[in-house]
Design brief:
alpha/beta; binds S-adenosylmethionine; about 270 residues; nine-stranded mixed β-sheet
Length: about 270
């Protein structure tokens, strides 16, 4: 069961705290009309299962892992990454880069009710909210206030080992799901980098496929199925037969910047 809890500190005209089914709070965006996480999967559980474990478990033997957290929002994907890293005593050096457009949300983060797992990370949350950066020991995190598309274009080619693609849905925030956007991401991801997304929409998979990504279906107990994408092969993941998908859905199309500019809807 999901309930909203109006707290004076966090809730404002645009954001409301909502209890999700794993007992952790997420938020509801009144601007986008969507929750920040699946309330059914649970905020912490979703972040851990769909983003953090699929990437960290495959990158944990590397000396360094460079991750892109799109979009930071309440910061669950970054914070869960740090929590998991500490919990399992990983030795990989972490560099995490996270763009987030909503400056008022970033300012309000210290008053959000985070899961108890994040209690030791309070100094990270406060530093990111006020200074946009946290750097200590094996961790370096940068939070950029601004547009993710602009941010992605700034990086040199072949930089990232993992991308958490966690924008609002293609229907409500289509600019972060077009073939051109995934093309920009492809240019900054290493060949064996992994992109994680909760989206299982064919339009999303086509946009990735058209940029040379292989697509993988992930099914885990306790969360809805999700997608991994990589230019390389992903161990222990079930590759999706995109040729077959395209043949059986001949009218399906990736979102494109041009169509969005013209107001053409595909979803
Ligand atoms: C689904 S929420 C992200 C959830 C987040 N990963 C978390 O753990 O809380 C989507 C976020 O995208 C942000 N956003 C929307 N458009 C954006 C853009 N063009 N660039 C950067 N952030 C954007 C919204 O402000 C919102 O915080």
């Amino acid at each position: 069961m999901v309930t909203t809890m109006p707290t004076k500190q966090f809730n404002d005209t645009l954001h409301a705290m909502v209890l999700s089914e794993d007992g952790t709070y997420t938020a509801y965006s009144k601007e986008y009309g969507e929750h920040y996480h699946s309330t059914k999967d649970g905020a912490l559980h979703e972040s851990l299962s769909k983003h953090v474990i699929p990437v960290l478990e495959r990158k944990k033997e590397q000396e360094e892992a460079v991750l892109l957290d799109i979009c930071f929002g309440l910061g669950f994907n970054t914070l869960t990454t740090l929590w998991y890293h500490r919990r399992y005593n990983l030795k990989t050096k972490l560099r995490i880069y996270a763009p987030e457009l909503d400056s008022a949300l970033i300012d309000a983060l210290p008053s959000f009710v985070y899961p108890k797992e994040f209690e030791p990370l309070l100094e990270v949350i406060c530093a990111l909210s006020t200074e946009g950066m946290y750097s200590k020991g094996l961790w370096h995190v940068e939070l950029f206030r601004g547009d993710a598309r602009e941010y992605v274009r700034k990086f040199a080619p072949q930089t990232f080992d993992g991308v958490y693609q966690d924008a609002f849905s293609p229907k409500t925030n289509p600019v972060l799901w077009t073939r051109e956007y995934f093309g920009d991401l492809a240019r900054i991801m290493k060949n064996d980098a992994i992109l994680t997304t909760y989206s299982t929409a064919l339009a999303t998979r086509l946009a990735l496929h058209e940029n040379g990504f292989k697509l993988y279906l992930c099914e885990k107990e306790g969360v809805r199925s999700f997608t991994l994408a990589s230019k390389g092969s992903v161990a222990e993941a079930q590759e999706i037969d995109m040729a077959h998908k395209i043949k059986t859905n001949p009218h399906a199309k990736a979102l494109s910047d041009a169509d969005l500019a013209e107001g053409v809807e595909h979803l």
